[in-house]
Design goal:
Blueprint: E1 5-12, H1 15-31, E2 35-42, H2 45-48, H3 54-57, H4 65-72, E3 78-82, E4 94-99, E5 107-111, E6 128-130, H5 134-143, E7 148-150, H6 156-165, E8 171-175, H7 176-181, E9 188-191, E10 206-211, H8 215-222, H9 227-243, E11 251-258, E12 261-269, E13 276-284, H10 294-303, E14 307-308, E15 311-312, H11 319-337, H12 341-374
Parallel strand pairs: 1-2, 1-3, 6-7, 6-8
Antiparallel strand pairs: 3-10, 4-10, 5-8, 5-9, 11-12, 12-13, 14-15
Helix pairs in contact: 9-11
GO biological process, one term: heme biosynthetic process
Enzyme class: transferase
GO molecular function: hydroxymethylbilane synthase activity
Length: about 375
């Protein structure tokens, strides 16, 4: 009996991350039955620090760095991520080898059991809404200034436990896609329209990260690459990168492909949601891969795959479409930066930096207090 080829797949340890990783593996198995996939699960910084808001931790790659180190050291062949967790700039030599077909990008409301059947607009003034996202808090604070928005951290299981067992939160806001993947659609009280809350860049999409020079893995991943999702995420990631955004500033987006056009709408918000700039942009996409100039095709073949927003260009979609998608995201960001959005972003960053320093001081004080308690008395 011939030995199976072994492919090692990196994943976070959370239940949702494992579900997502197994989803990708199951689809690959349908085509590559001779490959044995082994999951290498690990915890990341973001999984370990649960007593502070993501924006206050002050580090990048919170949910990806340990996995990326494993990739760099060739301990795994590829890593499955929620694409929204991947920074817009990846470590040298690493790329998004494919983008899996996007599920719902929208945000959803999960009510405390005592509010079953209600929507946000039905809650009383002073209700506490749990979210770990500055983007959600800013947009919902703008629409519902009568509510209080407080941080809630942990994986989905932990957040549900905090909601259901504590009396602190009246509702929490989560990604609809994550709830669906966990089999918890029945707990969704309300899906938020983008007029209320635009979603995060790449929300609902899974990205598979691998090494740029690993052609064997790139060929494997190309079979599950979804072109439409990739085009939207290329535009969204280009938009976010140009703005210099991340989890430290409230930036939102909505992207659509229709009638051979890519349309992107983006928003920049102050932390409290009282200030906002929202704009949109669109461009026509070429329809045929044969529109690609032969010289460009030849250049890509000789120099390796072309990257757009760190996402590898694959066969079945023209480079020109990818380039247009990337440009439309950049151009929207540039337009926003020519308005008061630039000042809003600068202020939000300053406020976040202050919050990071305060959080570090709090941690240091806790550490000192613990050390004092442990010092034996003479």
């Amino acid at each position: 009996m011939a030995e199976h080829t072994v492919v090692k797949v990196g994943s976070r340890k959370s239940q949702l991350a494992m579900i997502q990783t197994n989803t990708v593996i199951d689809v690959l198995k349908k085509t590559f039955s001779d490959i044995k996939f082994e999951i290498v699960a690990m915890s990341t910084v973001g999984d370990k620090i649960l007593d502070a808001a993501l924006s206050k931790i002050g580090e990048k790659s919170l949910f990806t760095r340990e996995l990326e180190v494993a990739l760099e050291e060739k301990e795994v062949d590829f890593v499955v991520h929620s694409l929204k967790d991947l920074p817009t700039t990846l470590p040298d030599g690493l790329v998004v080898g494919c983008v899996f077909k996007r599920d719902s990008p929208f945000d959803a409301v999960v009510m405390h059991p005592k509010h079953e059947g209600k929507k946000l607009e039905d809650l009383e003034e002073g209700s506490i809404i749990g979210t770990s996202s500055l983007r959600r808090a800013a947009q919902l604070g703008r629409k519902f200034p009568q509510f209080k928005f407080e941080n809630i951290r942990g994986n989905l299981n932990t957040r549900f436990r905090k909601l259901d067992e504590d009396e602190k939160y009246d509702a929490i806001i989560l990604a609809e896609a994550g709830l669906d993947r966990m089999g918890w659609r029945h707990r969704i009280s309300q899906v938020l329209d983008t007029d209320v809350c635009m979603y995060a860049v790449s929300q609902g999409a899974m990205g598979v990260e691998c090494r740029y020079d690993d052609q064997k893995t790139l060929d494997l991943l190309a079979t599950i690459h979804d072109s439409d999702t990739a085009l939207c995420c290329i535009a969204e990631r280009a938009y976010l990168k140009e703005l210099g955004g991340g989890c430290s500033v409230p930036v939102s987006v909505e992207t659509k492909l229709r009638d051979n056009k890519i349309e992107i709408r983006g928003g920049v918000f102050s932390l409290d949601g009282t200030e906002a700039v929202i704009d949109s942009h669109s461009a026509t996409l070429k329809t045929d891969i044969d529109d690609e100039p032969p010289l460009k095709k030849q250049k890509e073949t000789s120099n390796g795959p072309k990257l757009f927003s760190s996402i590898v260009h694959t066969k079945g979609i023209s480079q020109e479409k990818c380039r247009i998608a990337e440009n439309v995201g950049k151009e929207l960001a540039d337009r926003l930066l020519q308005t008061e959005a630039a000042g809003i972003l600068a202020t939000a960053r300053q406020q976040t930096e202050v919050a990071i320093l305060e959080e570090k001081k709090r941690k240091e004080a806790e550490k000192n207090e613990t050390e004092m308690i442990q010092i034996p008395k003479c």
